[in-house]
Amino acid sequence: MSIQMFGQPVSRGVAIGRAVLVASSRVDVAHYFIDAAHAPAEVARLRHARDTVVQEITTLKADLPPEAPPELAALLDVHLMLLNDPMLTDATRHWIEVRHYNAEWAMTAQTDVLVRQFDEMDDDYLRERKADIEQVAERVLRALAKEESLLPQVSHSRDQDGGDPLVLVANDIAPADMLQFKGSVFKGFVTDVGGRTSHTAIVARSMDIPAVVGAREASRLVRQDDWLIIDGDAGVVVVNPTPIVLEEYRFRQRQSELERARLHRLRHMPSVTLDGQPVELLANIELPGDAANALEAGAVGVGLFRSEFLFMNRNGELPDEDEQFEAYRAAVLAMSGLPVTIRTVDIGADKPLDRMAVHELRHEHALNPALGLRAIRWSLSEPAMFRQQLRAILRASAYGKVRVLIPMVAHRSEILATLDALERARQQLQDAGIPFTDVELGAMIEIPAAAMTMPLLLQHFDFVSIGTNDLIQYTLAIDRADEAVAHLYDPWHPAVLQLIANVIAMANGAGKSVSVCGEMAGDVAFTDLLLGMGLRSLSMHPSQLSSVKQRVLRADTARLAKEVGPALASADPAATWLAMNERWAQRSRSA
Ligand code: PEP
Ligand code: MG
């Protein structure tokens, strides 16, 4: 049966493929593709884990005390029976051999299929048996966890095999896990939870593949292998579409590919408005390897390198100074002399470190992480770690133009402590005779308090960059990662726009550079408005650069500037802005 689901559109375009469900399991399970040649070894690993569990349960049963209730022995028999049932064993092997899932993924995928079948049974007794399946699967997963996986992970086996395209469906994907899917075979993503500017959504957008988040019931309603359409423009997911719907979406897919190819041709054109104003278009990156995409897309620098992604997926180890230096230098060298703005680590909120690292650094899970010890607050609470990062960034400055960006500053004490840490890092390098050059220091404007105390920030920083994702979150008190309040996360809210306009005006007035690096920068719905406010620098995902450039090339900033005032003063800036621009378009058509 074909069904439709709705969520938040995250990344443009249409993806069509078979669903791969990343089932949530009580045991932490790695999901990766194995090389086809290693399938027999992976099957053997699974068989070995299963045999271990059979042995465990047999021993458990033999050791049952005589007074143990007879149901217990019967239950263990059921578990032994399940372990020998082809529904579990053969089918799990099938996911490994045909889909090239690793053994843990295959086990959770098949458990998920069986649990759903049991859920649909009319017989209460049989329905209850699903708990047994889950328990048995959990035992096998634990046995697998004890065995070292010797198999290399590959991300392209499906494409190499020419199989059906795959799309990923999950309840939630942590930003760190999403990062692992970069460059993988998946053509699209759907998650049950998340908002448009959650970091999971941001990483999906940086991968430039269609994605929908906050689709609530998706991972419950979609089944392994269902055909799915993911409409990343409208936030729609169609499960098992009819042939007519499928044809319609295939047509749209082709149209959107043609449009992309057309926009791509703009990448080497200078970004200048109709009235001759140059507009700097920069790229947001997560890893040094993304710099190549930035250049290819025509970016004239990196406006935001989210360095915290270097700190994720590390089993508790944090990158040391040399490792960080290598990563920053790689990005700087890849940009061949163009500026690279490295943001100091923004850990916390929806980007936690993995558990071990957090434990190591003595910070337990915060009550309200978005308002807790994140970004510069966290860095200042770990002075040695912070200085290490600053030294690594400074060292990279010997290889190109580097700028340092500080996330979430709001207090004078934070500014002074940051300046002090930077000075100490400089001193340490100087004493050790390690080369570095002068770097500009910038502040992210993400907290309303910072947007309202611009003179203080401008006094200490060389440039500012507006993080609209957080600025909106903190102005409207909306958790950006919570789909339940996603409808209230409104960049058009007059309070948000007034804060942004104020920051741009104050920075321009002080002759200091100001950029927007939040998701608003890559959304063409806001390009004219931001230009009208006086903004001349935007930083976004490389994939968004050409469409924004197209808007810049058609913009008349003198006219737009006149329209900003009335829009900001109105109760409904979106409607006012749209109406004014529609009137202008009509006048120019009839002229
Ligand atoms: C922002 O808050 O707008 C921003 C760019 O930073 P991040 O999305 O990483 O929090
Ligand atoms: Mg932010």
Number of domains: 3
Parts with pLDDT < 50 across at least 5 consecutive residues: 149-160, 355-364
- The coarse silhouette is globular
Helix content: 40-55%
- How would you write the strand order of the largest sheet? 1-10-9-3-6-7-8-2
Number of strands: 18
Mean pLDDT: 89
Give the N-terminus to C-terminus distance in angstroms. 53 Å
Q: State the CATH topology of the largest domain.
A: TIM Barrel
Rg from alpha-carbon coordinates: 27 Å
Per DSSP, the total helix count is 25
Give me the secondary-structure category. Answer: alpha/beta
Bound molecules: phosphoenolpyruvate, magnesium ion
> What is the CATH domain class of the largest domain?
Alpha Beta
Taking the sheet with the most strands, its summary is: 8 strands, mixed
The percent range for strand residues is: 5-15%
CATH architecture term of the largest domain: Alpha-Beta Barrel
Fourth-level CATH superfamily of the largest domain: Phosphoenolpyruvate-binding domains
Binding site for phosphoenolpyruvate: 306, 343, 469-470, 480
Main location: cytoplasm
Cofactor: Mg(2+)
Domain PEP-utilising enzyme C-terminal: 261-555
